[in-house]
Amino acid sequence: MIWVAHIISLLYVDQIPSQSKSRKQWDMEAAYKLLFDVRHLSDGAETSLPAVSTSKSTLIAFVAYRLLKLIAYWLLTVHLFTPLIPLVFGPVEPWEFDQYAQTYLRRLPMFEATEPVTLRETLIRVVFTFRWIWLSYVDIDAAHTFLSIIFVGLLRLDSPAEWPPMFGSPTEAFTIRRYWGKFWHRLVHKPYLSLAKVISGKLCLGSFGCGTEKIFLAFLIFFISGLAHAMVSLQRGKLVEAVDDVAFYCINFFVMVVEGLILEFARPARWLVPRWGWKTIGYAWVFIFWFWAAPKWSYPEVHREMLKETERQNRALGLGLFTGSLGGN
Protein backbone atom coordinates (compact mmCIF):
# COMPACT_ATOMS: atom_id res chain seq x y z
CA MET A 1 0.00 0.00 0.00
CA ILE A 2 2.81 2.43 0.89
CA TRP A 3 4.73 1.63 -2.28
CA VAL A 4 1.60 1.94 -4.43
CA ALA A 5 0.95 5.36 -2.89
CA HIS A 6 4.57 6.26 -3.60
CA ILE A 7 4.25 5.30 -7.27
CA ILE A 8 1.04 7.30 -7.62
CA SER A 9 2.76 10.25 -5.96
CA LEU A 10 5.87 9.87 -8.09
CA LEU A 11 4.23 9.53 -11.49
CA TYR A 12 0.88 11.29 -11.25
CA VAL A 13 0.98 13.81 -8.39
CA ASP A 14 4.50 15.19 -8.06
CA GLN A 15 5.51 13.95 -11.54
CA ILE A 16 9.17 14.05 -10.53
CA PRO A 17 10.53 12.09 -13.54
CA SER A 18 8.95 14.48 -16.05
CA GLN A 19 10.26 17.50 -14.16
CA SER A 20 13.88 16.41 -14.35
CA LYS A 21 15.80 18.09 -17.18
CA SER A 22 19.28 16.86 -16.35
CA ARG A 23 18.73 13.11 -16.34
CA LYS A 24 19.04 11.01 -19.45
CA GLN A 25 15.88 9.63 -21.01
CA TRP A 26 16.83 6.04 -20.20
CA ASP A 27 18.71 6.50 -16.94
CA MET A 28 18.02 3.13 -15.31
CA GLU A 29 19.98 3.93 -12.16
CA ALA A 30 18.01 7.13 -11.61
CA ALA A 31 14.78 5.25 -12.29
CA TYR A 32 15.72 2.62 -9.71
CA LYS A 33 16.53 5.31 -7.15
CA LEU A 34 13.25 7.12 -7.70
CA LEU A 35 11.25 3.91 -7.75
CA PHE A 36 12.32 2.82 -4.28
CA ASP A 37 12.99 6.17 -2.61
CA VAL A 38 9.70 6.05 -0.70
CA ARG A 39 10.90 8.52 1.92
CA HIS A 40 11.98 11.00 -0.79
CA LEU A 41 15.46 11.25 0.68
CA SER A 42 16.55 12.92 -2.55
CA ASP A 43 13.61 15.29 -2.68
CA GLY A 44 13.36 17.39 -5.79
CA ALA A 45 13.67 16.67 -9.47
CA GLU A 46 17.27 17.82 -9.85
CA THR A 47 18.66 16.55 -6.57
CA SER A 48 21.46 14.09 -7.09
CA LEU A 49 21.61 11.07 -4.85
CA PRO A 50 24.78 10.14 -2.98
CA ALA A 51 27.34 8.20 -4.94
CA VAL A 52 27.18 4.45 -4.54
CA SER A 53 30.97 3.95 -4.53
CA THR A 54 32.06 3.46 -0.93
CA SER A 55 35.33 2.31 0.61
CA LYS A 56 35.62 -1.31 1.67
CA SER A 57 36.25 -0.41 5.31
CA THR A 58 33.12 1.73 5.38
CA LEU A 59 31.04 -1.11 3.95
CA ILE A 60 32.45 -3.58 6.46
CA ALA A 61 31.69 -1.24 9.34
CA PHE A 62 28.20 -0.58 7.96
CA VAL A 63 27.36 -4.28 7.62
CA ALA A 64 29.00 -5.30 10.91
CA TYR A 65 27.09 -2.69 12.91
CA ARG A 66 23.79 -3.72 11.39
CA LEU A 67 24.44 -7.42 11.88
CA LEU A 68 25.15 -6.76 15.55
CA LYS A 69 21.96 -4.70 15.68
CA LEU A 70 19.93 -7.59 14.25
CA ILE A 71 21.46 -10.01 16.74
CA ALA A 72 20.64 -7.65 19.61
CA TYR A 73 17.07 -7.28 18.34
CA TRP A 74 16.71 -11.06 18.12
CA LEU A 75 18.09 -11.71 21.59
CA LEU A 76 16.00 -9.01 23.25
CA THR A 77 12.82 -9.92 21.38
CA VAL A 78 12.99 -13.70 21.73
CA HIS A 79 14.44 -13.94 25.23
CA LEU A 80 12.99 -10.85 26.91
CA PHE A 81 10.13 -8.93 25.31
CA THR A 82 8.16 -11.82 23.79
CA PRO A 83 7.96 -13.85 27.04
CA LEU A 84 8.08 -10.73 29.22
CA ILE A 85 4.56 -10.88 30.67
CA PRO A 86 4.72 -14.57 31.72
CA LEU A 87 8.23 -13.97 33.09
CA VAL A 88 7.02 -11.13 35.31
CA PHE A 89 3.52 -12.27 36.23
CA GLY A 90 3.61 -16.03 35.84
CA PRO A 91 0.95 -17.88 33.84
CA VAL A 92 -1.65 -15.64 32.23
CA GLU A 93 -5.10 -16.65 31.04
CA PRO A 94 -6.98 -15.59 27.88
CA TRP A 95 -9.65 -13.81 29.91
CA GLU A 96 -6.99 -11.36 31.12
CA PHE A 97 -6.99 -9.91 27.59
CA ASP A 98 -10.71 -10.13 26.80
CA GLN A 99 -13.15 -7.30 26.08
CA TYR A 100 -13.32 -6.29 29.73
CA ALA A 101 -9.55 -6.01 29.97
CA GLN A 102 -9.54 -3.82 26.86
CA THR A 103 -11.55 -1.23 28.78
CA TYR A 104 -9.72 0.46 31.63
CA LEU A 105 -10.84 3.99 32.48
CA ARG A 106 -14.53 3.09 32.75
CA ARG A 107 -13.65 0.30 35.17
CA LEU A 108 -11.77 2.43 37.66
CA PRO A 109 -13.13 2.17 41.25
CA MET A 110 -14.64 5.66 41.09
CA PHE A 111 -17.14 4.46 38.48
CA GLU A 112 -18.33 1.49 40.57
CA ALA A 113 -17.93 -0.97 37.70
CA THR A 114 -19.12 -4.55 38.08
CA GLU A 115 -15.60 -5.75 37.25
CA PRO A 116 -13.22 -3.07 38.56
CA VAL A 117 -9.59 -3.03 37.51
CA THR A 118 -7.08 -4.89 39.64
CA LEU A 119 -3.45 -4.17 40.50
CA ARG A 120 -2.31 -7.22 38.53
CA GLU A 121 -4.27 -6.10 35.49
CA THR A 122 -2.80 -2.61 35.73
CA LEU A 123 0.76 -3.90 35.99
CA ILE A 124 0.21 -6.28 33.06
CA ARG A 125 -1.06 -3.34 31.06
CA VAL A 126 2.04 -1.28 31.95
CA VAL A 127 4.41 -4.05 30.85
CA PHE A 128 2.32 -4.76 27.75
CA THR A 129 2.54 -1.11 26.68
CA PHE A 130 6.35 -1.14 26.71
CA ARG A 131 6.36 -4.56 25.05
CA TRP A 132 3.96 -3.40 22.33
CA ILE A 133 6.03 -0.32 21.50
CA TRP A 134 9.22 -2.39 21.38
CA LEU A 135 7.80 -5.11 19.14
CA SER A 136 6.21 -2.56 16.79
CA TYR A 137 9.52 -0.73 16.58
CA VAL A 138 11.64 -3.84 16.04
CA ASP A 139 9.35 -5.33 13.38
CA ILE A 140 9.95 -2.33 11.14
CA ASP A 141 13.52 -1.42 12.03
CA ALA A 142 14.79 -5.00 11.80
CA ALA A 143 13.35 -5.33 8.30
CA HIS A 144 14.92 -2.00 7.33
CA THR A 145 18.26 -3.07 8.80
CA PHE A 146 18.22 -6.43 7.02
CA LEU A 147 17.39 -4.84 3.66
CA SER A 148 20.13 -2.24 4.13
CA ILE A 149 22.65 -5.08 4.48
CA ILE A 150 21.35 -6.67 1.27
CA PHE A 151 21.30 -3.53 -0.87
CA VAL A 152 24.45 -1.88 0.50
CA GLY A 153 26.66 -4.74 1.64
CA LEU A 154 25.80 -7.53 -0.80
CA LEU A 155 24.29 -6.08 -3.96
CA ARG A 156 26.23 -2.78 -3.74
CA LEU A 157 23.32 -0.97 -5.36
CA ASP A 158 23.13 1.73 -2.71
CA SER A 159 25.48 3.68 -0.48
CA PRO A 160 25.23 3.80 3.33
CA ALA A 161 24.01 7.40 3.07
CA GLU A 162 20.92 6.16 1.23
CA TRP A 163 19.91 4.02 4.21
CA PRO A 164 19.70 6.47 7.12
CA PRO A 165 17.99 5.41 10.37
CA MET A 166 14.29 4.69 10.01
CA PHE A 167 13.40 6.03 13.46
CA GLY A 168 14.34 9.08 15.48
CA SER A 169 15.32 9.23 19.12
CA PRO A 170 12.68 8.15 21.69
CA THR A 171 13.83 11.07 23.85
CA GLU A 172 12.08 13.35 21.36
CA ALA A 173 8.70 11.71 21.99
CA PHE A 174 7.41 13.89 24.83
CA THR A 175 4.15 14.70 23.03
CA ILE A 176 1.97 12.51 20.85
CA ARG A 177 2.71 14.80 17.92
CA ARG A 178 6.44 14.43 18.47
CA TYR A 179 6.04 10.69 18.95
CA TRP A 180 4.72 10.43 15.39
CA GLY A 181 6.72 13.29 13.91
CA LYS A 182 10.14 12.97 15.57
CA PHE A 183 10.47 9.40 16.86
CA TRP A 184 8.31 7.14 14.69
CA HIS A 185 9.29 6.35 11.12
CA ARG A 186 8.26 8.75 8.35
CA LEU A 187 7.98 6.07 5.69
CA VAL A 188 4.40 6.90 4.78
CA HIS A 189 4.52 10.66 5.14
CA LYS A 190 5.52 11.74 1.63
CA PRO A 191 3.38 9.25 -0.34
CA TYR A 192 0.29 9.79 1.79
CA LEU A 193 0.80 13.55 1.84
CA SER A 194 0.73 13.59 -1.96
CA LEU A 195 -2.56 11.67 -1.98
CA ALA A 196 -3.93 13.99 0.69
CA LYS A 197 -2.99 17.04 -1.39
CA VAL A 198 -4.96 15.65 -4.33
CA ILE A 199 -8.04 15.24 -2.16
CA SER A 200 -7.54 18.66 -0.61
CA GLY A 201 -7.25 20.22 -4.05
CA LYS A 202 -10.45 18.56 -5.22
CA LEU A 203 -12.25 19.95 -2.17
CA CYS A 204 -10.69 23.42 -2.67
CA LEU A 205 -9.61 23.54 0.97
CA GLY A 206 -6.83 25.98 0.15
CA SER A 207 -9.45 28.71 0.00
CA PHE A 208 -10.12 28.22 3.73
CA GLY A 209 -6.59 29.21 4.64
CA CYS A 210 -3.22 27.52 5.04
CA GLY A 211 -3.88 26.46 8.64
CA THR A 212 -7.13 24.68 7.82
CA GLU A 213 -5.54 22.90 4.88
CA LYS A 214 -2.58 21.72 6.98
CA ILE A 215 -4.89 20.28 9.62
CA PHE A 216 -6.94 18.49 6.99
CA LEU A 217 -3.80 17.12 5.30
CA ALA A 218 -2.57 15.77 8.64
CA PHE A 219 -5.95 14.14 9.24
CA LEU A 220 -5.89 12.52 5.81
CA ILE A 221 -2.40 11.11 6.37
CA PHE A 222 -3.61 9.37 9.53
CA PHE A 223 -6.87 8.33 7.89
CA ILE A 224 -5.06 6.80 4.91
CA SER A 225 -2.71 5.02 7.33
CA GLY A 226 -5.74 3.56 9.06
CA LEU A 227 -7.20 2.46 5.73
CA ALA A 228 -3.92 0.77 4.79
CA HIS A 229 -3.93 -1.24 8.02
CA ALA A 230 -7.63 -1.93 7.59
CA MET A 231 -7.02 -3.44 4.16
CA VAL A 232 -4.64 -5.94 5.74
CA SER A 233 -7.23 -6.81 8.39
CA LEU A 234 -9.93 -7.24 5.73
CA GLN A 235 -7.61 -9.49 3.75
CA ARG A 236 -7.42 -11.67 6.86
CA GLY A 237 -11.21 -11.65 7.10
CA LYS A 238 -11.36 -9.48 10.24
CA LEU A 239 -13.90 -6.71 9.71
CA VAL A 240 -13.99 -5.57 13.34
CA GLU A 241 -10.22 -5.18 13.38
CA ALA A 242 -10.41 -3.17 10.16
CA VAL A 243 -12.79 -0.70 11.79
CA ASP A 244 -10.54 -0.56 14.85
CA ASP A 245 -7.53 0.19 12.65
CA VAL A 246 -9.17 3.24 11.11
CA ALA A 247 -10.47 4.38 14.49
CA PHE A 248 -7.04 3.98 16.08
CA TYR A 249 -5.31 6.33 13.64
CA CYS A 250 -8.15 8.84 13.64
CA ILE A 251 -8.09 8.94 17.44
CA ASN A 252 -4.37 9.64 17.32
CA PHE A 253 -5.00 12.62 15.07
CA PHE A 254 -7.76 14.08 17.24
CA VAL A 255 -5.68 13.56 20.38
CA MET A 256 -2.87 15.53 18.74
CA VAL A 257 -5.27 18.35 17.91
CA VAL A 258 -6.47 18.55 21.51
CA GLU A 259 -2.88 18.25 22.72
CA GLY A 260 -1.86 21.16 20.50
CA LEU A 261 -4.69 23.33 21.80
CA ILE A 262 -3.74 22.59 25.41
CA LEU A 263 -0.08 23.36 24.77
CA GLU A 264 -1.00 26.62 23.07
CA PHE A 265 -3.25 27.55 25.99
CA ALA A 266 -0.47 26.72 28.46
CA ARG A 267 2.22 28.63 26.54
CA PRO A 268 2.16 31.72 28.85
CA ALA A 269 2.83 29.49 31.87
CA ARG A 270 5.74 27.56 30.40
CA TRP A 271 8.31 29.72 32.15
CA LEU A 272 6.96 28.52 35.52
CA VAL A 273 8.36 25.02 34.93
CA PRO A 274 11.86 24.25 33.61
CA ARG A 275 12.18 22.50 30.26
CA TRP A 276 13.12 19.19 31.86
CA GLY A 277 9.96 19.42 33.96
CA TRP A 278 7.77 19.90 30.90
CA LYS A 279 9.52 17.00 29.20
CA THR A 280 8.93 14.76 32.21
CA ILE A 281 5.26 15.67 32.18
CA GLY A 282 5.22 15.03 28.44
CA TYR A 283 6.79 11.59 28.72
CA ALA A 284 4.25 10.67 31.38
CA TRP A 285 1.41 11.90 29.17
CA VAL A 286 2.64 9.93 26.15
CA PHE A 287 2.93 6.78 28.23
CA ILE A 288 -0.55 7.27 29.73
CA PHE A 289 -2.00 7.64 26.25
CA TRP A 290 -0.39 4.43 24.99
CA PHE A 291 -1.28 2.71 28.26
CA TRP A 292 -4.89 3.44 27.34
CA ALA A 293 -4.70 3.01 23.55
CA ALA A 294 -2.32 0.10 22.90
CA PRO A 295 -4.35 -2.60 24.69
CA LYS A 296 -7.54 -1.39 23.03
CA TRP A 297 -5.92 -1.98 19.66
CA SER A 298 -3.84 -5.09 20.40
CA TYR A 299 -5.59 -7.04 23.17
CA PRO A 300 -8.17 -8.59 20.77
CA GLU A 301 -5.39 -10.20 18.72
CA VAL A 302 -3.61 -11.40 21.86
CA HIS A 303 -6.87 -12.80 23.20
CA ARG A 304 -7.57 -14.71 19.98
CA GLU A 305 -4.07 -16.15 19.83
CA MET A 306 -4.23 -17.29 23.44
CA LEU A 307 -7.59 -18.96 22.84
CA LYS A 308 -6.14 -20.76 19.81
CA GLU A 309 -3.15 -21.89 21.85
CA THR A 310 -5.41 -23.13 24.64
CA GLU A 311 -7.50 -25.02 22.08
CA ARG A 312 -4.37 -26.62 20.59
CA GLN A 313 -3.20 -27.68 24.04
CA ASN A 314 -6.60 -29.14 24.89
CA ARG A 315 -6.66 -31.09 21.64
CA ALA A 316 -3.17 -32.40 22.26
CA LEU A 317 -4.14 -33.36 25.80
CA GLY A 318 -7.32 -35.06 24.59
CA LEU A 319 -5.41 -36.93 21.91
CA GLY A 320 -2.85 -38.02 24.48
CA LEU A 321 -5.53 -39.32 26.82
CA PHE A 322 -7.26 -41.12 23.95
CA THR A 323 -4.10 -42.83 22.70
CA GLY A 324 -3.17 -43.65 26.29
CA SER A 325 -6.50 -45.34 26.87
CA LEU A 326 -6.07 -47.34 23.67
CA GLY A 327 -2.64 -48.45 24.79
CA GLY A 328 -4.00 -49.48 28.16
CA ASN A 329 -6.61 -51.63 26.51
UniProtKB/TrEMBL annotation:
Its main location: membrane. The chain crosses the membrane at residues 70-89, 132-157, 215-234, 246-264, 276-293. Residues 163-249 form the Wax synthase domain. The keyword Transmembrane helix applies. GO terms for cellular component: membrane. Keywords: Membrane, Transmembrane, Transmembrane helix. It holds the Pfam family MBOAT_2. This is Wax synthase domain-containing protein. It comes from Aureobasidium pullulans (Black yeast).
